[in-house]
Hints:
The protein is an alpha/beta fold.
Amino acid sequence: xxxxxxxxxxxxxxxxVMLAFLAGSAAAEEAxxxxxxxxxxxxxxxxxxxxxxxxxxxxxxAWGPEGVRHMLDACxxxxxxxxxxxxxxxGRSLYKSALMDPQGKWEDDxxxxxxxxxxxxxxxxxxxxxxxxxxxALMAKVESLEYASFDTLAEAVRYGHSIGIxxxxxxxxxxxxxxxxxxxxxxxxHPEARWRKRDGTFYHSQLSFxxxxxxxxxxxxxxxxxxxxxxxxxxxxxxxxxxxxxxxQNDPEGVADRGYExxxxxxxxxxxxxxxxxxxxxxxRWVRFRARPHTEFMREVRNRVNVQKPGMPIAVMVMHPWxxxxxxxxxxxxxxxxxxxxxxxxxxxLIDSAVAAGYYMNGGGPERAYQxxxxxxxxxxxxxxxxxxxxxxxxxxxxxxxxKRLGARQILFWEADYIDGRGNKEELQKAMHExxxxxxxxxxxxLVLNTDCTNFFVAHGMDDMTLxxxxxxxxxxxxxxxxxLFINTSGQRTVFRSKVWDSYMDVDENxxxxxxxxxxxxxxxxxxxxxxxxxxxxxxxxxxxxxxxxSPWVTMRMNDLHTVHILDHPMNSxxxxxxxxxxxxxxxxxxxxxxxxxxxxxxFDFAHPAVxxxxxxxxxxxLERYDVDGIELDWMxxxxxxxxxxxxxxxxxxxxxxxxxxxxxxxxxxxxxxPVKIAARVPSDPQHARGLGxxxxxxxxxxxxxxxxxxxxxxxxxxxMPIELWRELLGPALDQVVLAPGIEVRLxxxxxxxxxxxxxxxTSRGQVASLVDRGADHVYLFNYFFxxxxxxxxxxxxxxxxFLNDGADLKAILGKPRRHVVTFDDAVPPGVPVACILPAxxxxxxxxxxxxxxxxxPTSGRAVIRIGLSDKPGVEGARFxxxxxxxxxxxxxxEGLPRGELCVWDEFDIKRELLFGVAPQxxxxxxNVVEVILSGPGAPQEIxxxxxxxxxxx
Length: 954
């Protein structure tokens, strides 16, 4: 079949597509073999690059978030699960950059407003039958798009992730103009750093990586993207090389006619003792020497990714031996024609994927280009098949069959907005979607961070009670693996001036108990300071999330009980105080000996319609007040919602209630023009959740929720959540529901509220590794306060940011030390005993046994069993032995193992520590059975702490 020509410049609607002449007037492709039209035995990953300014020139596409949603919805419908979002338009940015001017007003002398007769002729040659009026109308539309006020990349990442699309940053790294007229600020300021031809003349805008300042500038662009956007990868486009007035950029043999900049010429003379200007342009030594700066750039990019975003893929678009640009100007492959040593990039592991651009001459075509790139990269990287967005279903099927025959796993369709111009758009989307595979990383686990409603106001002083101060709170999470920010709006009172609930600001600080007065006075006064400036903290955070590519949700606590043990505590709501008849145990109001550990008796009983109506008031207000991606109903603050023994009937009531909330979010989704989703936080065990009337499985199967968050309550994180059971019970509902189990920052060995220690960096890593390995879609963090979740030295801001940057990426986590600690499930129905394994008695020869889930098994390094013993008679002289999975372990010394920062030994009265080494080959994936036995006669002993610490090898 013949591939449709990519010549979009013939009509005004597509003529200026930033700029289509560099997308090329693609030559007709070689005929592909006839396709087998049967349903494919396997699917392929389908993907496409997307240029926001191009799509804005199409009829009926809105500016702002609505337009981005239109673009990505069209991609989703076509089965394109990886979208390469254009971040640079020539020398301008389409994201919020400190390095570049945003796209907008062009220079006076530009491609569509040429000045000289020669340039007018060049524009006419590229734009065909466009009149001067057409070109001016196009420029008016282009320049009306104000990118200084809209961060397209942030919105694409946010919305793309919300609908299951990977969004990679597409950087046209080798150009600083496009056509001409949108030069970069840097190129204008540094004309001495431009490419130079063999005859000594300079190019118009193209910058040479041989100059250190250019290298630093280009790397700074990469740094800016990595630091501020949760993109799924980098797509470095090397074939776009700027100003078309510089064509041809190659000599008649297709060898690059550039690289004659002073640093390269001088460097070659120093190394080889010859002036390269006296050698043929295609001299192999000279070609390879000129390619070195590009390879050095790629090394630096890989280093930055490894440090900032370990595991993030790097893809490149390069050329092939039949390539051309402009008006059929020959390019003799990557090394000679583009000065890109792609073979070296592949050998050194600098790239993960590569694709050969679809511009062919002299008998070239997609098959030959694909095979040439495979040979050039020596099978070391994933090579994609390049195709143009098809014009017919048959054309797609032919491309698909050819890609499969070649062994490709991914097709890159150029370019995404073409789909909107196809008259048979829906038919094409359906055909492609039916053949599309989900990429392995499409649902790569990320972090969901729940922010406590008072966290910011406790951690920040009055000077930060400004819009900039509020924004900085979100900025700290930008570029990390935090994909969702769940912004808590309330306890029993709200942190904004609600029309339907009491607010923190309504409290008379003089009514506060003395011991609470100072902390709560600070919160109230900070909220009032913001209100005086007309600032709503929730709204400011929602807006900033959108700007930074983080999905903003609001969360409300459905039954907060922090202060209910004190009846007249001012933090209790008026509604709660005035209606004890709505409590789970109304008679507790007359109990003179009521204590905080019985607070659940004074929880609201949701069997009462008035209680449900009261909470629905706030749900409605939140959805009306804030344009969010979703709302979380936090049923774990606190976990008891029905009179003891009435949980079964209560479960049916809550399921109906969740249906009402789903109808409400559906209405708001229509008004907002985007999905408004629901998350529900429930107990970590599905049986216990159902036993408490919190039947998340039923809610998911009935389509009432979009995210299910099984979590512990508060006493401790639960290091053994049955994720496999959750997935089994959810069954087909997993296609529609994200499973995001949560970890709590507190860490305990048994059900004793008095003891308090915390997850640290290593124990948090351990839980994430276990949860992801067991099948978590995302990992949810609760009580992980910022700037650090717990006092130093358990956490520092630096260690917390390291944790957030690693996120739920197993590759990053498994390369660092992690700990897996025995805890328990702290949220159970009334009458169900809390199953605490610890403390465990050691007496005689009967072993104490622990099943510890450690996620993936280590293949190198070392693992150590850590056992803490209480102060029992004879503990210092007692002897012990240990086994893991039936294998005897040797006792080891404590050297090199962290201890003091855990706050465990002192808090839990651990008198003695036992350490046993475990050979990696004896470790299982998942559960490992640890047995500790008294060795020889002696007094009974007691284990109060048990864990496995894994330290990877080199």
